[in-house]
Amino acid sequence: MTGADVTPFAPENALDPARFELLTFDCYGTLIDWEAGIIAAVRQISAVHGSSPNAADILAAFGEAEHVVQAERYRTYRDVLALTLGRMGPRLGFVPTSAERNAFAASVGDWPTFPDTVDALRRLGARYRLGIVSNVDDDLFARSRKALRTDFDWVVTAQQVKGYKPATAHFDEMATRSGVPRDRTLHVAQSLFHDIAPASSLGYATLHVNRPTRGSGGGATPHSGARPDAVVTDMAGAARLLGVGP
Fold first, then answer.
1. Do β-strands 129-134 and 205-209 pair in parallel, antiparallel, or remain unpaired?
2. How confident is the model over 128-144, as a mean pLDDT?
3. Alpha carbon of 17 to those of 27, 80, 119, 158, 245: distances in Å?
4. Residue 146 pLDDT more than 60?
5. DSSP notation for the chain
């Protein structure tokens, strides 16, 4: 995200760590480096077709296509990604085969964690309950969960609620399962469009993990003017802000 898209972090908009009982997280883009995963998977496929798109173009094409496919109707995230690559390919100079679209979808489980993620989750989990609200299938998240090495108290996926953020069903389901009031829950996420906007509309406090992008603007996500309650640049910063970081 660009600096103009968010409220700059300052002491006066810091969040009171004692206020919260539950932290909910988006996964991909926040805990998992989806930009690295998307770029690597697309480049592997495009190279077969003699195309070599740059990182910014890959992310822009993904950001324009994914949310459109998600908004059409509920499909599994595997199907969303397969269709997303089909839309991206011609813009990037190639037409993917069915097998390549499926391989791109399956690559989610190989997307790497950010270097700061596991330690930050361990520190935060010692003080707070932890939940995941993610636009993903159960089996794909199961692979990512192994890399996160964290015992989340609750996990809500798109497959479970049959829909995708920025729709609010993930948050409603999390509230029902956890029983934790909204004013005791902090939502932590990278995407202003998919997460900060809907969570804020429901009255949740929000923390934007404004990680640097390899692209421009919102990177792999559409632009949003949503305003979080506070901003950090990574999960290590989130742990420090909430009083458990070094």
1. unpaired
2. 98
3. 21, 37, 18, 29, 12
4. yes
5. --GGGSPPP-GGG---GGG-SEEEE--BTTTB-HHHHHHHHHHHHHHHTT----HHHHHHHHHHHHHHHHHHS---HHHHHHHHHHHHHHHHT----HHHHHHHHHGGGGPPBPTTHHHHHHHHHTTSEEEEEESS-HHHHHHHHHHHT---SEEEEHHHHTS-TTSSHHHHHHHHHH---GGGEEEEES-IIIIIHHHHHTT-EEEEE----SSSTTTTS-------SEEESSHHHHHHHTT---
The model's pLDDT over 188-239, given as tens digits with 9 standing for 90+, comes to: 999 999 999 999 999 999 999 999 999 887 789 998 999 999 999 999 999 9
Spatial distance between the Cα atoms of 11 and 7, rounded to a whole number of angstroms: 12
Report pTM.
0.92
Output the pLDDT for position 215.
86
In angstroms, the CA 184 to CA 203 distance is 11
The alpha carbon dihedral of 170, 171, 172, 178 has a sign of positive
Please confirm, yes or no, whether 26 is among the known catalytic residues. Answer: yes
Question: Residue 34 CB: number of other CB atoms within 10 A?
Answer: 25
d(CA 172, CA 156): 10
Place of tokens 């760590």: 17
Measured in residues, the chain has a length of 246
Q: Looking at 5, 16, 26, 229, which residue is catalytic?
A: 26
How many CA atoms, within 13 angstroms, populate the side-chain half-sphere of residue 69? Answer: 21
